[in-house]
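Recall from the previous lesson that a structure prediction takes nothing but the amino acid sequence as input. Here we apply that procedure to dCTP pyrophosphatase 1 from Gossypium hirsutum. The sequence below is the only information supplied.
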Amino acid sequence: MADFAKERNWDQFHSPRNLLLAMVGEVGELSEIFQWKGEVPKGLPDWKEDEKVHLGEELSDVLLYLVRLSDICGIDLGKAALRKVELNAIKYRASKNYSTNDDSTAEMCG
Ligand SMILES: [Mg+2]
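The prediction returns the following tokens.
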């Protein structure tokens, strides 16, 4: 990502704030794909191939901006994410019996 930006002289535009706002814009584009569809089943079995391709593109846009933002901020995202998973494992113990009606059941981050 750093090489890609440098080769295009985009470093001048890639401030933390600009990258964050660009990523939020891409989250909006990702949200548009699901907008008005209601709940959809896992695996998206009823979606057309071109819809899934589009979904993959928008997920990638979000990921790429997140990686670039992390790099620009001097954060080792891989290391930070692994640390957070470990913290979440302590916070949300697997031995606890989570109720299906408990809002925290599906919460992976906090
Ligand atoms: Mg996009």
